[in-house]
Write a structure and sequence with these properties.
The longest helix has 6 residues, at 74-79. The strands form four sheets. Strands 2-5-8-9 form a four-stranded parallel sheet, with no helix packed on it. The protein has a three-stranded parallel sheet with strand order 1-4-7, with no helix packed on it. It starts with a strand and ends in a 28-residue tail after the last strand. By secondary structure, it is mostly beta strands. The protein has one helix and eleven strands. It is globular and about 45 Å long.
Amino acid sequence: MVWNNIFAFGHDQQIQRSRAEPHLSFSFKTNIVYFDSGALLAGDWSGTNFQIDWNIYFDSRSDAKGMSFGNSSLEKWREQGNDKNSILADPSFIAPKENDFRLRPNSPALKPGFEPIDTNQIGTLKQRGRH
C-alpha cells in the first residue's frame, strides 16, 4: 500500500510497475505526483491486478491534458478502471523548487483525500531540538 505520499521530481519516470502479477500487486492512493521531467508511468501496466486512484498528478512542463498514462490517454486509462477519482492539477505547494512541499490552504490535493502531515514531528529528536 502506497498511500498519502508526495513524489516529486523523478527523472526518468515517476511511478514504475515492474511486472504484472496474478495477485494484487499494489494499491497507490491519495498520493501527489509532481514532476518536471520524464514520464508519469513506466513499466508493465497490463492487467488489472493493481489499484490506482484518488491521486493528484502535475507535470509542470506543460498542459496536464497532454499527460500520458503509460500508452493510454487519461480517458482510456479511466475506462480500464484506473484513476477514476484522480485529478490533474497543480497541488499548490508553497515552494516546490526549494523543497517546501507544504500545501496552500486552497490546494486541490485536499479534494481527493490527501492528508498533510505536520513535518515538525518528523525526523530524529536531535533535528527537532531535543537531545
